[in-house]
Amino acid sequence: TAVNIAVAFSQLGKKVLLIDADLRRPSIHKKLKLINTKGLCSVLSGSATFEECVQRSNNHLDVLTSGPLPSNPIELIESYTLTELLTALEDKYDYIIFDSTPINVVSDAISLAPKTDGLVLLVLEGSTRRDDVHHALSACRFANINVLGAVLNCVDTKNSRKYSYRKYKYSG
Description:
The chain is α/β, with parallel strands linked by helices. Helix content is about 35%, strand content about 20%. The strands form two sheets. The protein has a four-stranded mixed β-sheet, covered by helices on one side. A two-stranded parallel sheet has the order 5-6. Helix 8 (about 130-140) links the parallel strand 5 (about 120-125) and strand 6 (about 145-155). The chain starts with a helix and ends in a 19-residue tail after the last strand.
């Protein structure tokens, strides 16, 4: 979802940076077929500069993969170095989009979100339970995180009885 949003904004001519901040199970490099020898972890640990790690996906889309997985992902996410990096990049990009860990599994997303303009929840039909969404929203309220919205993903339109877009009719 983060890749698709980043690509869509870049196709509108917006300068976009996509950052893989899932420092436990990164996937952006696989989806975009990029190398992952250096990335966000390298920048935050001081072993490489942003310029050494960022990769261009298209004319308007740059990608910062996760880089080598750290033993202390939450410490890197909570670091002042990340705050400084974002401040330095704010004027260079129209949008900086993060892909992060699931919000209810580990605290990485809750620690990262206050450094951003907001968070978008990804909800999977048939997988994400209602109480999981309530728990995520409660955590966001508690941490004073701006929830920008939600994306409902993996919708099976063939078996959905609640809404149909066929011939602009509602069914159910």
